[in-house]
Design a protein that fits this description.
Helix content is 26%, strand content 22%. By secondary structure, it is α/β, with parallel strands linked by helices. The strands form 2 sheets. Strands 1, 10, 11, 12, 13, 14, 15, 16 and 17 form a 9-stranded mixed β-sheet that branches. It has an 8-stranded parallel β-barrel with strand order 2-3-4-5-6-7-8-9, surrounded by 4 helices. The chain starts with 12 loop residues before the first helix and ends in a 10-residue tail after the last strand.
Length: 423
């Protein structure tokens, strides 16, 4: 009897098998909201950290609403993400504005819409935000100062010469500033802002509790010293995200080359210690994939099978135009055959329909009786799927999005033919 992988919830299998796709629906995403809600509830069973959802991972309305129901607040990095979160009835005082490209115009717009928590990533952003509050106070409430926004400074650390950080080296990024650059400011020079926290996040898809704890521990001393140097009473420490998903059950993260799958309970224990070391009132995490990846699937049919230089290949109706992550990380989503099969497995190259060799979704095992017309299901697609990809290349269809809740498959976004977006 065919055994499905542990990441696949077989309670949804019959519904997916029965689903009849339209002519425009070449591939679709489906998110299990009941499973997501249960997972989020477990994450909230602690009082050590404040949890934010990084909207970039999945901005679908139903995903945001489910996170809201479990008490998550929201990290937005663009005006579009802000509009989407506000459209779900989220109060702006539960929104954190992150991202390296905040202009004065954008800061002004966020303040006018009620956002009061910001991560600033440059000296310009700090100055602009201070000016925005002063200018809006003069226009809107000339005798009353607007509530001071809560401001965190984003810090970019470098590791000692010869050592590798979890991203594979001391690569310079646009995220935040060095300790040395931030030391040129003093919080008293920005009277319109409550500068009371530091933000640091320089890693991705980490899977080892031991390495995460070591990483967090190394940051405490330089951050405490920076706060003292600039006259900050350090109340908040934001450690970003980066908690990993072991996509192929290999027991290793994409950055560190080895380690164990993360234990959430160990994370809480470790962060309680980090919180005590830093002496802060609040410790924040911005979860993306760790919050929502497991709830999502991507379903796509096989349109061709062939042998090429001794390698079996499957060509799918859609590829990186719907899920680009395998091409940019070299780490594929896991896959299974939707129908039951007792056939032995073999490894296939999985390709999409685009005219580029980049359009490859993995070199992965499937039952060897897979053939044209079969549907494949990719797992852990609740994060970095629909909105991270390149849907317009070659004028293929846009993917549909569904939710599965209370045993029903509900269409949230219909598939769209190229004629709907071509000018």
């Amino acid at each position: 009897m065919n055994t499905k992988p542990t990441w696949f919830d077989t309670s949804i299998e019959s519904t997916l098998l029965a689903h009849e796709s339209s002519d425009d629906e070449q591939g679709y995403f489906v998110y299990q909201l009941d499973a997501l809600k249960a997972h989020l509830a477990k994450l909230q069973q602690q009082d050590v950290i404040k949890l934010w959802f990084a909207v970039k991972a999945n901005p679908l309305s139903k995903i945001i609403q489910t996170l809201d129901s479990e008490g998550f607040d929201f990290d937005v990095a663009s005006s579009g993400e802000l509009a989407q979160v506000l459209a779900q009835g989220i109060s702006p005082d539960r929104i954190l504005n992150t991202g390296p490209a905040k202009s004065k115009k954008q800061l002004n717009a966020f303040i006018k819409q009620g956002v009061r928590t910001f991560v600033v990533e440059s000296l310009n952003q700090l100055t602009w935000l201070n000016e925005v509050i002063a200018e809006q106070t003069l226009v809107d409430k000339p005798t009353v100062l607007l509530d001071k926004p809560t401001v965190l400074l984003r810090v970019q650390l470098q590791w000692p010469e010869g050592e590798k950080n979890p991203l594979g080296g001391n690569s310079l990024t646009p995220f935040g500033l060095s300790v040395q650059e931030w030391q040129s400011v003093h919080v008293s020079d920005y009277p319109n802002l409550d500068i009371c926290g530091l933000h640091i996040f320089q890693w991705g898809n980490m899977l080892s509790n031991e390495k995460m704890y070591s990483l967090w521990g190394q940051m405490v001393s330089p951050l405490i010293n920076l706060a003292a140097d600039i006259g900050m009473e350090l109340k908040i420490l934001d450690l970003g995200g980066g908690l990993g998903i072991d996509y192929l059950n290999e027991g290793r993260g994409e950055a560190q080359g080895g380690g164990d799958t993360l234990s959430w309970q160990q994370i809480i224990t470790d962060l309680a210690d980090i919180k005590a070391q830093a002496g802060v009132d609040e410790l924040w995490l911005e979860l993306g994939r760790f919050a929502v990846a497991e709830c999502g699937y991507y379903v796509v049919p096989v349109v061709d099978r062939k042998m090429n230089y001794g390698q079996d290949q499957l060509v799918l109706a859609a590829g990186i135009n719907h899920i680009i992550r395998p091409a940019i990380t070299e780490q594929p989503f896991p896959v299974t055959l939707l129908r039951q099969s007792n056939a032995p497995s073999q490894v296939f190259d999985l390709h999409g329909p685009l005219c580029t060799s980049m359009d490859k979704l993995g070199h992965l095992p499937l039952q060897n009786d897979v053939n044209v017309g079969d549907k494949l299901v990719f797992g852990y697609c609740g994060a970095y799927g629909f909105t991270e990809s390149i849907p317009f290349f070659l004028c293929h269809q846009l993917a549909a999005e569904y939710v599965f809740q209370a045993g029903k498959l509900i269409e949230i976004r219909a598939a769209q033919a190229a004629s709907t977006y071509l000018a």
